[in-house]
Design goal:
Helix content: 40-55%
Order of helices and strands: HEHEEEHEHEHEHEEHHHEEHHEH
CATH architecture of the largest domain: 3-Layer(aba) Sandwich
Number of strands: 12
Shape: globular
Distance between the termini: 61 Å
CATH class of the largest domain: Alpha Beta
């Protein structure tokens, strides 16, 4: 009963009508990739440079200095050279995406509608429409990973921006702390998969797992979507994220800092670059680990805890305006001391 309710609710929020469940978004992405390979007969996956899709092997590729794909630094125990399985294009680079798809071997484009784990990189006007057109024309399956971009709204960026991917994957937040993830297919794609009598979709075919869709995960997912991450909750969360963003921008402007701040619904983040980066590679180049550490420690010592790996705030239904304002006050003091040093 809970699984049926969750599937219907995910359809309402995101659009795709056929849902299956996993325990992590990584697994949801892996299984979506396998289905895409099965129906297209192609082998490669295309991702954006410095994307984030969990520990999916195919996603650990970045654009090198000449634009060609290379293994992402720090990639642990890669089973093969990642260029064997993957292609890469910069986010917001329509021409680069088209060139990569022209090889004719891409089964799926796996992407975040906005980059989130290398700082927030927002799509430029027309970019996501171009991605949809190019993937459709090339026969590649378009997978929107909404695990992080769920912050954009109740249906993530897919719902907020009216996107039409072939597959949506999502995890983490939808279970409220209990392991759960989901992947949803359009009816057209699901019919193509289910028409293949040669695919073992219920046992040893490489899709699914013993604990996928277990009763605890489904109950947690239903409780979270029905009572916590509601449409109404996003109104308040997004408003507070806007307040946070405005406060940070005010301080950046006051000191003429070469920094920027970007908001994605209930998520906001500042980056040491101005203008804001438009690709993952540009955002990676703006990384300053010493400055990150300074701000993290300064804020943590004054009761403001940021993400430990970059300067992101994720507003939740319990966040208050007073907490947002405290961040602004402490951030202002941190900047003032930094500039006075």
């Amino acid at each position: 009963e809970d699984a049926e309710w969750v599937g219907a609710e995910l359809t309402r929020r995101f659009g795709p009508s056929r849902w299956s469940f996993a325990l992590t978004a990584t697994d949801a992405n892996r299984w979506a990739i396998r289905l895409a390979r099965a129906v297209t007969g192609r082998s490669k996956v295309l991702v954006n440079s410095y994307c984030y899709h969990g520990s999916v092997d195919e996603s650990l590729i970045v654009a090198g200095p000449d634009g060609d794909g290379v293994s992402r630094p720090g990639n642990v125990g890669a089973p093969v050279n990642v260029t064997v399985t993957s292609r890469v294009a910069e986010f917001n680079d329509v021409a680069g995406l088209e060139r990569a798809l022209d090889h004719g071997d891409v089964a799926a484009v796996l992407m975040e509608p906005a980059l989130t784990n290398i700082g927030i990189v927002l799509p430029e006007a027309g970019y996501l429409n171009a991605v949809r057109r190019l993937t459709h024309d090339s026969g590649a399956v378009l997978i929107n990973d909404e695990t992080h971009t769920l912050s954009a709204g109740p249906g993530g960026a897919t719902g907020a921006w009216g996107l039409q991917p072939d597959v949506v994957t999502v995890g983490k937040a939808i279970g409220g702390g209990i392991p759960v993830a989901a992947y949803g297919l359009t009816s057209e794609l699901a019919d193509r998969v289910q028409s293949r009598a040669d695919l073992d979709l219920v046992d040893v075919g490489g899709v699914g797992g013993t604990l996928a869709g277990n009763a605890l995960s489904m109950a947690a997912c239903r409780a979270t979507l029905e009572h916590v991450l509601t449409d109404e909750a996003w109104v308040g969360m997004t408003a507070l994220a806007g307040r946070w963003t405005t406060g940070v921008q005010r301080i950046i402007d006051e000191h003429s800092l070469p920094w920027s701040v970007q908001q994605l619904g209930a998520r906001s983040e500042y980056r040491f670059s101005s203008p804001a980066p438009r690709t993952g590679t540009e955002s990676h180049a703006a990384t300053d680990s010493e400055l990150d550490d300074y701000l993290h420690v300064y804020l943590a010592n004054r009761d403001v805890l940021m993400t430990p790996f970059h300067n992101m705030a994720l507003i939740c239904p319990q966040t208050t305006a007073a907490q947002v304002d405290l961040h602004e006050q402490v951030f202002a003091a941190a900047v003032a001391e930094l500039l006075a040093a």
